[in-house]
From TrEMBL:
Keywords: DNA-binding. One of its GO terms (molecular function) is DNA binding. This is DNA-binding beta-propeller fold protein YncE. Gene3D superfamilies: YVTN repeat-like/Quinoprotein amine dehydrogenase. It comes from Actinomadura citrea.
Length: 349
């Protein structure tokens, strides 16, 4: 099984952010061999690969720390050539700040970047021309901290999760306007089904602050046409990352806490990858992963899932048919936290 699911991946790459050491590491996707890394600006978070231009975008979100516990927000994106493993350019989005979620409309050559708000205006999405690598627009989301951002397969609609705001922002990408607010109790990761009819959103927001008991965790299913939640996929623990494969599997990373909280992010047990059908909502399987799963991606054929776990600073590679872990990558770090953003990079054709 391991050999068959790995076949044909020679010269494909997996790129992984190390948040604490400010690097992007590259691994051979066929055998998990480390082949090199690139230094980037402090606090890199998410990655996005532009296959047409063979460029990798990396968002640096804060000078240090993380959401609501940082020393100041950055404003830069780093553009990397993954084949030569060198920095091509650093794009400064100032006065915008706190770039995090990255979504590419490959057909139109547009990169969408979620940015945090300020006293002067709410958070929003910056539109970047992927060819010139320059900002060309902004769409307000009417929330202070849009974090993850995804777009529909046809490039017409975008969806921003908002940690504290009690809604998902829906934007018309052609008109550049906010069109709806779908009520959810704060949200984390989100993903769109391959046919664009449903959006899967992790809610509630994962807060580590003491206080009232949060709503029950689950994956809220939004009907895209109705802009309303129509179902909830049940999970046991709070979910941060959500990803949908090309084959229609919903991958959710559950954070599992130990009984006695310790660090700023609490004391964690091994996390869990839970897989659902994007069509039926049926649970298809589960696999144990590292501590605090924070980003998930998959291979283009939907056979392999990759789960970056920030506290253990590991990436688990999961066969999504057998739900067996094939390998675990240890991501070099200096301090905490560690592994974060991911991108699968097919070899040049």
């Amino acid at each position: 099984m391991t050999q068959s699911v790995r076949a044909g991946r020679e010269s494909d790459l997996l790129a992984v952010v190390s948040q604490s050491s400010a690097t992007v590491s590259f691994f051979d996707a066929a055998n998990d061999t480390y082949i090199g890394g690139v230094d980037v600006l402090a606090e890199p978070h998410e990655l996005c690969f532009d296959a047409r231009r063979r460029l990798l975008w990396c968002a640096s979100t804060y000078h240090s720390g993380y959401y609501h516990a940082n020393s100041g927000r950055r404003s830069e994106l780093t553009v990397i050539d993954p084949d030569t493993r060198r920095v091509v350019e650093v794009v400064d989005l100032a006065p915008e700040h706190g770039p995090h979620g990255l979504a590419l409309d490959a057909e139109r050559g547009l990169l969408y970047v979620s940015v945090e708000g300020s006293a002067e205006r709410p958070g929003g999405v910056v539109v970047v021309d992927a060819g010139t690598r320059r900002p060309i627009g902004r769409i307000d989301t009417d929330a202070p901290g849009p974090h993850w951002f995804v777009i529909s397969p046809d490039g017409a609609a975008g969806y921003a999760s908002n940690k504290e705001a009690p809604f998902v922002s829906v934007v018309d990408l052609e008109k550049g306007t906010l069109t709806a607010k779908v009520e959810v109790p704060g949200s984390e990761g989100l993903a769109v089904s391959p046919d664009g009819t449903r959006v899967f959103v992790a809610a509630p927001y994962g807060s580590f602050a003491a206080g009232a008991e949060p709503p029950s965790p689950g994956i809220r299913v939004i009907d895209a046409a109705a802009a309303a939640v129509t179902d909830v996929l049940p999970v046991d623990d709070v979910v941060f990352p959500v990803h949908v494969t090309s084959t229609g599997k919903v991958l959710a990373g559950e954070l599992r806490m130990a009984t006695d909280p310790g660090s700023k992010l609490g004391r964690q047990s091994p996390g869990r990858l839970t897989v659902f059908s994007a069509v039926s909502g049926d649970r298809l399987g589960q696999a144990e992963v590292g501590r605090f799963p924070l980003t998930i991606t998959s291979s283009p054929d939907g056979a392999l899932g990759y789960v970056a776990c920030v506290t253990s600073s590991t990436v688990d590679i999961i066969d999504l048919e057998s739900m067996q872990r094939l390998s675990r990558l240890d991501i070099v770090k200096r301090g905490e936290p560690g592994a974060h953003g991911l991108a699968y990079i097919p070899r040049a054709r």
